[in-house]
Specification:
Layout (H helix, E strand, L loop, with lengths): L7 E3 L18 E9 L14 E5 L5 H8 L11 E6 L7 H9 L4 E5 L30 H4 L11 E5 L17 E3 L16 H9 L1 H10 L16 E4 L11 H11 L5 E4 L2 E4 L4 E4 L4 H12 L3 E5 L27 E6 L23 E4 L3 E4 L15 E5 L1 H24 L5 H10 L20 H9 L59 E2 L14
Parallel strand pairs: 1-5, 6-8, 6-9, 7-8, 9-12, 12-13, 13-14
Antiparallel strand pairs: 1-17, 2-4, 2-5, 3-4, 10-11, 15-16
Helix pairs in contact: 5-8, 6-7, 8-10
Length: 537
């Protein structure tokens, strides 16, 4: 979308980030945030101070970005995004650079970024992993997918775009050979190699990425801890925040595209202030993230994105038509809301009141009671952080990995059956049309979509004559379970998943060649102070 003389300014961090313009740091500091120009020829008109540098927001070779852009007509030109960094902070430069950049009419988008704080602390619940079981337990029936060749995610890479991973956790360390960090270890927001800041210490304590990995790939064979939905999937770690002080959400998405192949999954464990509300909605609220997502989807990657924990109505006129197709096209991502687990006295699959919602939200996952690796509860009663587990991982943060892993298992089965993966929109439609319907009142106005049902989805997939379009399936044809029909489960009443061996699959044959290699407050062009929004997961 082009704007001849229009500037979008995000200023949520400039007064609240806690970093002064004259502070002395030993690593690059962001000065301008991210901005987009109309034409690459405009770059020569931008000036910075001697101690600053103008760098690409998407730091890849021009040929790589052009190759990604050529996947479909009309994709955004990612080479037009830039940011300014300060290599020495002895001079004040924030306001000067800000004023110089805003003075140009060819600047279309402008962002000033803040380091995202850690996710909000979760409620103290204890539970089993009943999201793995059949729908009678309000589960996605992952255990059925494990009996189908390819249904363990074999041959698929899930790229986790966020931060804070403890690869030394006892339930993840056997997966080290399947986990790849996409940036140098000394520049990654991994675990435990952080800068010593308050925000990073909170990330260590919460171990957000550790919990996400546990849901998806934790070891099914070690007879301890938890079991992942996609235990044979590979993992790519693409940090959005780097230890050298740079936040690169959009680049983190493209980094996964450059490393991966069509059919792989990109999970966005992030959110942004949305629709001018000051509350958290989808990360694609930002135009650079949106551009990166549509590029990834056009290149065959299934993008799964959290809808956000801010109770934002994405159909509200305040959103400016971003999410209903009137202003910009559907990005193609699978947007995920947070639903109830059914383990309390509340109806299963009812929208949790913090979850953002709207017609653009496609699917839901458990937004409470998720048992996984990490957390601070120390359910093993061990002080060893590599043995920490939680029974209360929550929010759209816990919902999204459930959907991402379900998509990975379906792609593994598709490759086994057809030799090629399904397209991102086919995967999305298949999961939506075969899902277990949302419950609650006024669903139309508070939509978060159905919960994936891998049994129904796999049956529909196996009945396909590929290549073909996926037939429309009416969710109402699948039985809806009332809260009274969902039994209260305890660990002793559920058979152990450890006794279910993983099926031996034939080698995966993929016909497609692998490619090698916050928060924001939106406003007009003014120097007006804007309050920052607290990032939470």
């Amino acid at each position: 979308m082009k704007f001849s003389s229009f500037i979008v300014l995000f200023l949520s961090a400039i007064a609240t980030s806690g970093v002064r313009a004259d502070a002395v740091q030993d690593y690059p500091k962001e000065v301008s945030g991210a901005f987009k120009i109309q034409s690459i020829s405009n770059k020569t008109s931008l000036t910075v101070l001697p101690n600053q540098r103008l760098i690409p927001l998407f730091n890849f070779k021009k040929s790589v970005l052009e190759n990604l852009r050529n996947a479909a007509p009309g994709l955004p030109d990612l080479t037009l995004w830039f940011k300014v960094i300060e290599v020495s902070s002895k001079e004040q430069g924030d306001i000067t650079v800000l004023s110089n950049i805003l003075a140009h009419d060819f600047v279309e988008e402008f962002y000033i970024e803040e380091t995202p704080p850690p996710p909000q602390k979760s409620p103290d619940f204890t539970s089993d992993q009943t999201y793995l079981y059949p729908k009678i337990a309000n589960g996605i029936n992952a255990e059925y997918s494990w009996t189908v060749p390819g249904g363990t995610g074999k041959g698929i890479t899930i790229y986790d775009v966020e931060y804070s991973w403890n690869q030394n956790h006892e339930d993840l360390k056997t997966k080290i050979g399947n986990i790849k960090m996409l940036v140098p270890e000394d520049d990654s927001q991994g675990f435990p190699d952080f800068h010593d800041t308050v925000a990073n210490q909170l990330m260590i304590d919460g171990a957000h990425g550790t919990a996400v990995l546990g849901q998806m790939i934790s070891d099914p064979t070690n007879n301890l801890g938890v079991r992942g939905i996609s235990p044979d999937a590979n993992i790519g770690l693409s940090p959005e925040y780097l230890t050298k002080g740079l936040t690169k959400r959009g680049e983190a998405i493209i980094r996964a595209c450059v490393d991966g192949k069509p059919g792989d999954i990109i999970l966005l464990e992030m959110q942004s202030g949305a629709c001018g509300t000051g509350r958290d909605g989808p990360a694609e609220e930002r135009e650079d993230v949106y551009d990166a997502i549509v590029t990834a989807v056009a290149n065959g990657f299934v993008v799964v994105a959290a809808a956000g924990n801010g109770n934002v109505n994405l159909d509200d006129p305040a959103c400016g038509g971003k999410y209903d197709g009137t202003v910009r096209a559907d990005s193609g991502a699978i947007m995920v809301g947070a639903g109830r687990s059914g383990k309390t006295n509340q109806p299963a699959r009812e929208r949790l009141d913090f979850s953002s919602f709207g017609s653009r939200v496609n699917l839901q996952g458990w937004g409470e009671d998720v048992y996984t690796t990490g957390g601070k509860e120390r359910l093993t009663a061990s002080p060893d952080i590599n043995r920490h587990y939680t029974g209360s991982f929550s929010g759209t943060s816990s919902a999204s990995p459930i959907v991402a892993a379900a998509a990975a298992n379906l792609q593994g089965i598709a490759i086994e059956r057809f030799g090629v993966p399904l397209t991102p929109r086919e995967i999305r439609r298949l999961l939506v049309d075969t899902g277990i319907p949302q419950t609650g009142t006024n669903i139309t106005n508070f939509n978060i979509g159905p919960l994936p049902n891998l049994l129904q989805a796999i049956n529909a997939l196996q009945n396909m004559n590929f290549p073909t379009s996926i037939p429309t399936r009416n969710p109402s044809s699948f039985p809806s379970f009332s809260p009274s029909s969902i039994p209260s489960l305890n660990p002793s009443s559920v058979p152990s998943l450890r006794s279910t061996p993983l099926p031996t699959s034939a080698p995966v044959k993929v016909s497609t060649k692998a490619k090698k290699s916050n928060n924001f407050k939106k406003g007009k062009k003014k120097t007006k102070k804007v309050k920052a929004n607290k990032f939470k997961k």
